[in-house]
């Protein structure tokens, strides 16, 4: 079972293959945003990887990051990542202080849209 460490929150066992956005909310109890419901249309689910950033990226995530001009090293969309290895992240897009009424819509168990894997 992979370990997810969330800075200033703790370390949690996460079922292998679980979407990072779901692990951040369900296991870690964070207020991580996901306004589009986890379908790579926005960038509200951004996290910054401290350790364990996956080498692969979905084509949808790559395109969303490009279009939204998110270029910071290690910043990824938690809705497009599966917890397949130990990782340490910093939550950088939270409900607190965002002015939004909630974190976002329900997130499917599987990555949406269907992932086409590529390299960063």
Automatic annotation (TrEMBL):
CDD domains assigned: fer2
Positions of the UniProt region annotated as Disordered: 98-120
Protein origin, superkingdom: Bacteria
2Fe-2S ferredoxin-type domain span: 2-95
Family: Belongs to the adrenodoxin/putidaredoxin family.
Cross-referenced PANTHER family: FERREDOXIN-2, MITOCHONDRIAL, FERREDOXIN/ADRENODOXIN
Protein name: Ferredoxin
């Amino acid at each position: 079972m992979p370990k997810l460490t969330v800075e200033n929150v703790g370390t949690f066992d996460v079922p292998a293959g679980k979407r990072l956005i779901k692990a951040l909310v369900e296991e870690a109890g964070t207020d991580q945003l996901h306004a589009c419901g986890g379908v790579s249309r926005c960038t509200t689910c951004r996290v910054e990887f401290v350790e364990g950033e996956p080498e692969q990226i979905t084509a949808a995530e790559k395109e969303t990051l490009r279009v939204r001009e998110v270029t910071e090293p290690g910043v990824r969309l938690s809705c497009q990542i599966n917890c397949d290895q130990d990782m340490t992240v910093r939550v950088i897009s939270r409900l607190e202080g965002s002015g939004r009424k909630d974190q976002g819509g329900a997130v499917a168990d599987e990555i949406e849209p269907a992932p086409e894997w590529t390299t960063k």
